[in-house]
Design goal:
By secondary structure, this protein is mainly alpha-helical. The protein is built from 14 helices and 8 strands. It has a domain of about 200 residues. Helix content is about 65%, strand content about 5%. The strands form 4 sheets. The protein has a two-stranded antiparallel ribbon. The protein is globular. Keywords: Cell membrane, Electron transport, Heme, Iron, Membrane, Metal-binding, Transmembrane, Transmembrane helix, Transport. It comes from Aurantiacibacter atlanticus. Pfam families: Cyt_bd_oxida_I (PF01654). Belongs to the cytochrome ubiquinol oxidase subunit 1 family.
Length: about 475
C-alpha cells in the first residue's frame, strides 16, 4: 500500500509522530517534578499534612508519566540510525557527544534518585528524601538543557568545522556549540512552557474536584497554587516568546516570514495578519485580515520599519507556510488564553472567591490540556519552520535520510501508530483515572495501596496486616512491635 508513497515524507511523518508523543511527557514531568519538590518543601517547612497528601497524590502520577517519557524517548532515538543514518553519520561528531552528556548527567541523576523519591519516604530521613526529590527535579531540567542544546545547534549551527568527508566536526570550543545563538532563548521558552503545562493540568484537576465539592481543602490548595503559577508565569512566557521571536528573526528570517504570512516584502511597515489562508503556489495570503504596521512594531519596535518577505527567499529554500502560519497562531492564542485565566484568577483571589467562582473552575478545567496543545504547536512551528533544512542552511532534510524504500518505513509507521495508541492510550487512561479520585487525608504514595505494600515478586515476604487497619500505623521496627504501644 506504500509502493507509490514518498519515503522521505513517511520518514518525516514517523519522526513527527513519535517525537510528538514523546514531547508531551517531558513537558509534563519537568514541571511536575518541580511541583513535587515545592510540595515536599512546604510540608517540611510548615508541617501541614495537606502538602504531604498532595505530594503523594501527584507522585503516583509522576511515576507513570516519567516511565512513559523514558519508553517513548528510547523508541524515538532509534530512528536516528534507521531512518536518518546519513544525518547521524554527518552530524554525529557534534550531536553524539551532546546526547551522551544528557545520559551521563541528567538520566543518571534522575535514575539514581528516582527510587529514593518514589519508595524512600519511610526508608531515609526527611532531608535526604527531600534531596532526592530536588535531584530528580534538577535532572529533568538538565535533560532539557542538553536536548535543547542539540536542537538549537541544528537551528543555529556554530562552532564546527567541515571535514573533507562532509562531516561536521567540533571546533576549538565546545561551549560555542552548546551555547549556540538560539539556545538560551529556546531553553527558557521551553522550560517555562513545561511549568505552565503542569500548572494547568494541576489547576484542571483542582477545578474538577472543586466543582464536585468546593470544601475539599486539598483541591482548594492545588487550585490556588496552579493559579498563582498561571498568573505570574504566563506574562513571563509572553515576554520570553517575544525575545525568542526576535532571535529567530535574526538567525532564521524565513521562519518568521512564514509565521507572519509575509509572502511580500513591506518597505514601509508590515501588517500583523490575524487570519488568512496561505497559498504557497501563488505566493500570497488569501482572505487576509490584519492590523497595519503592527508586525513591524513587534519585530522591529517601529511602526514604519521595513520587513522582508518570502519574495527574497528562493522557492526551494522556503518552508511550508500553511502549517507554520496556523501552528504559530494556535500557540500564541493558547498563551493569551492562559494569561486571561491567570488574570481572572487574580480578580477572584482579590475578592476572596477563588474557590467559589464556578465559571472560573469550568474555564480552568477546559484549559487542562491546553499546555500540551501549545507545546506541540510550538514544536511544529520550530521544526517545520526550519525546513527544508535539517541543519539550517547546511544540510537539507532530503539529503539526511536513509536509503530506505517507502514500504519499509510505512510498515514501521503503522506499527508505531497502533502500538503507541494502545500502550500510551492505556497509560493516559490510568492517569486520568487517578486524577478523577480526589486527594484526601492520609493519601497513599506509590509504595502502599489499600491492599498493602506492593511487591515486585510474589515470593517477597511482607508484614501481615489486620483487615481495615491503616498501613501507616503498622510497627516500623522490631522494638516498636514489642513495646506494647
Amino acid at each position: 500500500m506504500f509502493d507509490q508513497a514518498d519515503a522521505l515524507l513517511l520518514a518525516r511523518i514517523q519522526f513527527a509522530f513519535t517525537v510528538s508523543f514523546h514531547f508531551i511527557f517531558p513537558a509534563f514531568s519537568i514541571g511536575l517534578a518541580s511541583y513535587l519538590a515545592v510540595l515536599e518543601g512546604l510540608w517540611l517547612k510548615t508541617g501541614e499534612a495537606k502538602y504531604l497528601d498532595l505530594f503523594k497524590y501527584w507522585l503516583k502520577i509522576f511515576a507513570i508519566v516519567f516511565a512513559m517519557g523514558v519508553v517513548s524517548g528510547i523508541v524515538m532515538s532509534y530512528q536516528f540510525g534507521t531512518n536518518w543514518s546519513v544525518f547521524s553519520d554527518l552530524a554525529g561528531p557534534v550531536i553524539g557527544p551532546l546526547m551522551a552528556y544528557e545520559v551521563l548527567t541528567a538520566f543518571f541523576l534522575e535514575a539514581g534518585f528516582l527510587g529514593v523519591m518514589l519508595f524512600g519516604m519511610e526508608k531515609v530521613g526527611r532531608k535526604l528524601h527531600f534531596l532526592a526529590t530536588l535531584m530528580v527535579a534538577l535532572g529533568t531540567c538538565v535533560s532539557a538543557f542538553w536536548i535543547l542544546s542539540v536542537n538549537s545547534w541544528m537551528q543555529t549551527p556554530v562552532g564546527f568545522e567541515m571535514a573533507a568527508s562532509g562531516q561536521f566536526l567540533p571546533g576549538e570550543s565546545w561551549w560555542d556549540i552548546v551555547f549556540n545563538p538560539s539556545f538560551p532563548y529556546r531553553l527558557v521558552h521551553t522550560v517555562i512552557a513545561a511549568y505552565l503545562t503542569t500548572a494547568f493540568v494541576v489547576g484542571a484537576v483542582g477545578a474538577w474536584h472543586l466543582l464536585k465539592d468546593r470544601t475539599n481543602q486539598h483541591a482548594r490548595t492545588m487550585f490556588s497554587m496552579a493559579m498563582w503559577m498561571a498568573a505570574l508565569v504566563a506574562p513571563l512566557q509572553i515576554v520570553a516568546g517575544d525575545m525568542h521571536g526576535l532571535n529567530t528573526l535574526e538567525h532564521q528570517p524565513a521562519k518568521v516570514m512564514a509565521m507572519e504570512g509575509h509572502y511580500e516584502s513591506h518597505p514601509d511597515g508590515a501588517p500583523l495578519y490575524l487570519f488568512g489562508i496561505p497559498d504557497d503556489d501563488a505566493q500570497r495570503l488569501d482572505y487576509a485580515v490584519g492590523i497595519p504596521n503592527l508586525s513591524s512594531l513587534i519585530l522591529k519596535h517601529s511602526l514604519d520599519a521595513p520587513l522582508a518577505g518570502l519574495d527574497t527567499i528562493p522557492r526551494e529554500d522556503q518552508p511550508p507556510v500553511s502549517i507554520i502560519f496556523w501552528s504559530f497562531r494556535i500557540m500564541v492564542g493558547i498563551g493569551f488564553a492562559m494569561l486571561g485565566i491567570g488574570a481572572w484568577s487574580l480578580l477572584a483571589r482579590m475578592r476572596g472567591k477563588l474557590s467559589e467562582w464556578r465559571w472560573l473552575h469550568r474555564a480552568a478545567l477546559l484549559m487542562g490540556p491546553s499546555g500540551f496543545v501549545a507545546v506541540i504547536a510550538g514544536w511544529v512551528t520550530t521544526e517545520v519552520g526550519r525546513q527544508p533544512w535539517v541543519i539550517y542552511g547546511l544540510l537539507r532534510t532530503a539529503d539526511a535520510a536513509s536509503p530506505l524504500a517507502a514500504p519499509a518505513i510505512g510498515a514501521s509507521l503503522l506499527a508505531f501508530v497502533v502500538i503507541y495508541f494502545a500502550v500510551f492510550g492505556a497509560g493516559t487512561w490510568y492517569i486520568l483515572r487517578l486524577m478523577k479520585s480526589p486527594p484526601h487525608t492520609g493519601e497513599f504514595g506509590v509504595k502502599r495501596g489499600s491492599k498493602g505494600p506492593m511487591r515486585a515478586a510474589g515470593i517477597t515476604p511482607g508484614p501481615t496486616q489486620n483487615p481495615g487497619r491503616d498501613p501507616d500505623t503498622l510497627p516500623r521496627d522490631k522494638e516498636e512491635a514489642n513495646d506494647g504501644s
